[in-house]
Amino acid sequence: MEGKNQNTSIEFYMMAFDSHPELKPLFFTLFFIVYIAALLGNIVITTIIITDSHLHTPMYFFLVNLSILDICCTTAAIPKILQIIWSKDKTFSYSGCISQLFIFSSALSTELMLLAVMAYDRFVAICHPLHYSTIMSRKTCTILAAAVWLLGAMNSTVHTSLILRLKFCQRNIIHHFFCEIPPVLKAACSDTFINNVVIIMADIILGMVCFILIVTSYTYIILTILKIRSADKKKKAFSTCASHLTVVSLFYGSSIYTYIRPAFSSDSETDKVMSAVYAIISPVLNPIIYSLRNKDVINALKKLLNVNVSS
């Protein structure tokens, strides 16, 4: 069953929806609506920020990067999910699965680091407002954004390279929505000990370190806000951080759980739920969270709509 030409003979079978075949029409409808909502929401946020010069600040620059990552996550996963649900063909080629895994894991690790960078931006804005423009200059923001994208791609390359070394049977059943590192490792026909060790190391280096940086940043932020005497200024400062904290809680909680726990135990149903949170639900909620709680974005949207109506 194993062979050297596995890149051409191996196939993966995505069986995530076979346990409830009667719900496939509902699943298709939900995933389709979620994908359109995520795509439109993130495109709208990106368009608003790019077209409105008042939003050309570090915080919104990083928000554009977050929206692009969310588009990458959903586009890498959901179209294939829709195809599998719609058609009777549940197969996924070896090259297609590996490509999806690389794109998704790259976007995931990049977003982990980007959220830490966004927390640092809020730390500088609130704790060192007089030096904000100097510290978070355009050059600094560009370097930080380029660094997280590069490190994310490098991290994904390491994991993908290790998976390419594994041997797979010709037919592999994956009880998941899409090709992601944990479920693909479960399907491997060879030992995955090194892969699991590297996953834990990456989670510690990327996930936990970034999470600690976020917690540290917000500890200083909260202490600084509590010293503010004006109630209105306190409320404004908290509101600028609340959106980011909500996104961090959803994304970090689900992604770290999914990538650390499989090395010790396995529960495919829980894995699917947690993956759906950061791969599907989070990209939909991010534009809503950042826009509904942000008057600048809402005003910019109204301005953009008024211009289009006038034209």
From TrEMBL:
Provide the membrane topology annotation.
Multi-pass membrane protein
User: What CDD domains does the database record attribute to this sequence?
Assistant: 7tmA_OR (cd13954)
Q: Name one GO cellular component term.
A: plasma membrane
Q: Which SUPFAM superfamilies match?
A: Family A G protein-coupled receptor-like
Signal peptide range in chain numbering: none
Please give the superkingdom of this protein's source: Eukaryota
Protein's cellular compartments: Cell membrane
Query: For this protein, what is any one GO molecular function term?
Result: G protein-coupled receptor activity
Per the UniProt record, which residue ranges are transmembrane? 26-50, 62-86, 98-120, 141-158, 204-226, 238-260, 272-292
Q: Which terms are listed as keywords in the entry?
A: Cell membrane, G-protein coupled receptor, Membrane, Olfaction, Receptor, Sensory transduction, Transducer, Transmembrane, Transmembrane helix
Which Pfam families does the annotation name?
7tm_4
Mainly localized where?
A: membrane
Residues forming the G-protein coupled receptors family 1 profile domain are 41-290
The family this protein is said to belong to: Belongs to the G-protein coupled receptor 1 family.
Please report the name of this protein according to its UniProt entry: Olfactory receptor
